[in-house]
Design a protein that fits this description.
About 30% of the residues lie in helices and about 10% in strands. With about 210 residues, the protein is α/β, with parallel strands linked by helices. It has a single domain, classed as 3-Layer(aba) Sandwich (Rossmann fold), CATH 3.40.50. Strands 4-3-5-6 form a four-stranded parallel sheet, with helices on both faces. Helix 4 links the parallel strand 3 and strand 4. The chain starts with 5 loop residues before the first helix and ends in a 32-residue tail after the last helix.
Length: about 210
């Protein structure tokens, strides 16, 4: 709005603007990489996290139901281990689609970061959706693999690379591959213009 000083109307402690009724972030702007520079969402987030979590033992994620915690160093290690496992054991490739049907879990951020680092498109769905709704979403997104739990696995049809149970010992083993060294994962060039996610709306979240 012409002649309007947004800084003067914004409350410095909360970022609330009386003129617009909106809140603004009080943090300094984050410099973005040139749009033509290859960069995955995982790489970008890690570049920010590395300057924030200077102590690897800092708690990164918490399961408030079970009390389970994940430190930042554990999170990074699990992301790299899972990415390696998905390439080597499941032969997932860039631009594949991974369907995710799971209730909230401390493992979900690890799954997202691992998939995005490989240029794999994530397609999360509501586990409360009906079988018909899930079938329609799968028809739209055409996933080659699904991340599910014992509770949701029955809603998923047969896929090229099957299903991965997030609440199974096998999945936990994918997070702790001890033979991984830096650079062992096949390099993937992810462009900023690549598709990162296929999302669905029930009509209330669109």
């Amino acid at each position: 709005m012409a002649g309007w000083d947004s800084n003067r109307l914004m409350e410095p402690k909360t970022g609330f603007c009386r003129q617009t009724g909106n809140y603004s972030c009080l943090r300094p702007p984050i410099p973005l990489q040139p749009i033509n520079q290859p960069l995955s969402a995982t790489e970008f987030c890690f570049s920010i996290f590395n300057s924030t979590f200077t102590d690897g033992a800092t708690t990164f994620s918490v399961n408030t139901t079970t009390g389970e915690t994940l430190s930042y160093s554990q999170f990074v290690s699990q992301v790299r281990s899972l990415a390696y496992s998905l390439q080597q054991r499941y032969s997932l490739c860039q631009n594949d689609v991974a369907f995710i049907l799971s209730p909230p879990s401390i493992h979900i951020p690890v799954v997202y970061f691992a998939l995005l680092s490989l240029g794999i498109v994530v397609s999360p769905a509501n586990p409360l959706s009906s079988n018909t709704e899930i079938a329609h979403q799968i028809q739209l997104s055409k996933p080659v693999v699904a991340f599910v739990t014992l509770e949701t696995s029955h809603k998923i049809p047969s896929l090229t690379h099957g299903t991965i149970l997030l609440d199974s010992p096998e999945f936990l083993s994918l997070l702790t591959q001890s033979n991984i060294v830096n650079g062992l994962t096949k390099s993937v060039k992810v462009n900023q213009s690549d598709t990162a996610a296929i999302l669905y709306s029930s009509g209330t979240t669109g």
